[in-house]
Design a protein that fits this description.
- This protein is an all-alpha fold and about 300 residues long.
- The protein has one domain.
- Helix content is about 75%, strand content about 0%.
- The protein has 12 helices and no strands.
Length: about 300
């Protein structure tokens, strides 16, 4: 083998099989984008025909009416397919590589929503979207060549479950205390945080299965994953009721991967081989992407204030 080629190969942390996760994640992003658009349409129609719950969360009757909306059901099925592709990508590649690729859904959703809602994005919203996507792809560009998969230990699972319990308790308390004053950005951020844990739990469960280990601790992770998925889905529907679909997707494709990636780096050690400069890029890229989400919430022409 050519010496230069051999040296380049040694610098790439992912093996060829792990790169399979990247196209799978991109296909999942397409289904995520379309699913969000259809779900948003269903939520808006239900809310317009019932008592206004803006800022208070959808009530039980409204949630049941969603099941009768074909657009919402179709969107949910598409989101289900997005999850299947996401899990498949996590099976092949480290979480810090494939999870951020969902940001492509933000671009697709912004374009589709602009056409469907006949709303032209202003330049500030476009800049915000560019910050979200640019920050995420900068992150992936570095992670793809520095990330490694690590064996999942019992201590990893316990740490993740404890942090998740704290996050869920804080989210529940904030929802109860500030329910009458909540806006789209709260639901978007909380949905992104919770789904970041969902992705992480899915990754560690798959890791345990690959290691041939499935005991009570792994089963606890499965239960926690289902509970977090349900709560995250509720926050997503409320985000649709109080904000545009591209803002919702911004939370799911920017906040979600940043949370998942942070856990991957801090808890799972997926960036243990990354040089110091790469860590600096991770932090900078994350700040750019999150700032983009807040700017999109502030400047999107469809944001309700």
């Amino acid at each position: 083998m050519d010496p230069d080629l051999s040296e380049l190969t040694e610098q790439i942390a992912l093996d060829p099989v792990q790169f399979i996760g990247i196209p799978l994640a991109l296909v999942g992003a397409i289904f995520l984008s379309l699913g969000a658009q259809f779900q948003h349409r269903g939520v808006v129609k239900v809310e317009s025909r019932t008592v206004d719950s803006f800022g208070k969360g959808l009530n039980g009757r409204q949630l049941m009416l969603l099941l009768a909306r074909p657009s919402w059901v179709l969107g949910t099925l598409m989101l289900g397919l997005a999850i299947v592709f996401q899990l498949s990508s996590l099976y092949f590649a480290p979480i810090i590589v494939v999870q951020p690729l969902g940001a492509i859904a933000l671009v697709l959703t912004s374009i589709v929503n602009s056409r469907v809602a006949h709303v032209k994005l202003n330049h500030k919203a476009i800049i915000a979207i560019a910050m979200c996507v640019g920050g995420v792809f900068l992150f992936v560009g570095v992670a793809a060549f520095t990330a490694v998969d690590k064996p999942v230990t019992d201590q990893h699972l316990i740490t993740i479950l404890i942090v998740l319990a704290v996050v869920l308790a804080a989210a529940g308390a904030a929802f109860i205390i500030f329910r009458n004053r909540l806006r789209a950005i709260f639901y978007v951020i909380m949905a992104g945080v919770i789904y970041g844990f969902v992705a992480t739990l899915a990754k560690v469960i798959l890791g345990r299965l690959q290691q041939g280990e499935f005991e009570w601790l792994t089963l606890t992770c499965v239960i926690a994953l289902l509970a977090a998925t349900a709560l995250g889905a509720y926050f997503v529907q409320n985000a649709h009721a109080s904000g545009p679909p591209d803002l919702v997707i911004a939370g799911l494709t920017v906040v979600d991967p940043i949370v998942a990636v942070t856990i991957g780096i801090v808890v799972l050690g997926e960036a243990s081989q990354a040089p110091l400069w790469a860590i600096g890029v991770f932090v900078l890229a994350g700040l750019i992407a999150v700032w983009g989400v807040f700017q999109l919430a502030r400047n999107h022409p469809q944001t309700r204030v």
